[in-house]
């Protein structure tokens, strides 16, 4: 199995928090399964705040539009070099 990027490792951690450790790919997206969404909601309610914030941060990161002007501006302003994370 190939090594995961830092971002991939964070995705795995969040999937584990949400009880989906056997799945690959993004946390976001879904498939319209309302039961699965309700299960995720129940799981989030049971997590400590710090873990919920980890999930939120990952979801936000997955939904950022890479290469967009605002993402580039934020990265430059914050002095981030994301090459090693993707």
Describe the structure.
The chain has 86 residues and is mostly helical. The chain has one domain. The chain has helices spanning 6-17, 34-46, 49-63, 69-78. Helix 1 crosses helix 3 (49-63). It is elongated, with a radius of gyration of 14 Å.
Classify the secondary structure makeup into a structural class: mainly alpha
Biggest β-sheet description: none
Oligomer: single chain
Return the domain count.
1
Distance between the termini: 17 Å
Average the pLDDT over all residues and give the rounded result: 86
- Individual helix count: 4
Radius of gyration, taken over Cα atoms and rounded to an integer in Å: 14 Å
Net shape: elongated
H/E series, N to C? HHHH
Top keywords for this entry?
0% strand, 86 residues, elongated, 4 helices
Topology:
Blueprint: H1 6-17, H2 34-46, H3 49-63, H4 69-78
Q: Briefly, what is this?
A:
The chain has 86 residues and is an all-alpha fold.
């Amino acid at each position: 199995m190939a090594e995961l990027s830092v971002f991939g490792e964070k995705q795995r951690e969040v999937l584990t928090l949400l009880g989906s450790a056997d799945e690959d790919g993004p946390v976001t997206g879904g498939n319209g399964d309302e039961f699965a969404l309700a299960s995720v909601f129940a799981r989030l309610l049971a997590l400590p705040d710090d873990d919920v914030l980890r999930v939120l941060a990952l979801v936000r990161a997955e939904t950022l539009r890479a290469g967009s002007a605002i993402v580039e501006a934020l990265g430059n302003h914050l002095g981030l070099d994301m090459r090693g994370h993707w």
